């Protein structure tokens, strides 16, 4: 078991993944230190009120990051991806490698890097995923104890504006009878906290993390039940895919296999016994977002960080 008295440095603590990790670490007794750009923002203040030690800095502030890593047990590393518009693919690679190098040089005991579910041995042709493969490859050359997790498609993505829920339908990547794995963002933190708690077991491992496997018809059934009225499901139309090359490539990656997900759900449930099914998520932490999506139109937007 790891030394829980030392803090964990979390990147992206005001975002989805880092926020989930911070919550889970605090719940399990870890001290958390977080790099934030603005210590006065509402999200940063909420972190401080929860007991998080804030360090003001950016991904480019190597001196600040190195100081923040001193005396820590571990580092959770995640970077914004290019679809979010904050960083280019080249920026993501540079910062991901820099954080790993700094953790190694500072003597951090355990580095956990959050990659992507479609990342594998072969390039995908999408910078969004291939950038993460480059970071993974670099981490494996370092002597630091490290674990790489590859999150599946977030359940939260299904209730973003632009997928048609406000019109009583859902359009997504899968064909009606095609399976794909999904991950509740809340579960990311629980997996990561369990990994930090047992470095000896997880050091050197790379594996996908997911919470459930569903088909398009499953989504239709579960959304219909949750809404109390029919929600029809269909794959993105050819016209939509032709107009959006990013969606088109993601859909192709699902057909080709990488984006479908290959996580061992039974093994993951032993790591995180509270792992949520899609139905459980929809009835619980995803309920508010789902209800908002039913009444909110708007353009599609995406940031998987």
Folded structure, characterized:
The chain is of the alpha/beta class and 305 residues long. The protein has a domain at 8-155 and 182-212 and 259-275: Rossmann fold (3-Layer(aba) Sandwich), CATH 3.40.50. Helices cover 41% and strands 16% of the residues. The chain has a seven-stranded parallel beta sheet with strand order 3-2-1-4-5-6-10, with helices on both faces. A three-stranded mixed beta sheet has the order 7-9-11. Strands 8-12 form a two-stranded parallel ribbon. α1 crosses α6 (185-196), α3 (62-69) crosses α4 and α4 runs parallel beside α5 (127-139). The longest helix is centred in the first third of the chain and has 18 residues, at 89-106. It starts with 7 loop residues before the first strand and ends in an 11-residue tail after the last helix.
Features:
305 residues, globular, Rossmann fold, seven-stranded parallel sheet, 13 helices, alpha/beta
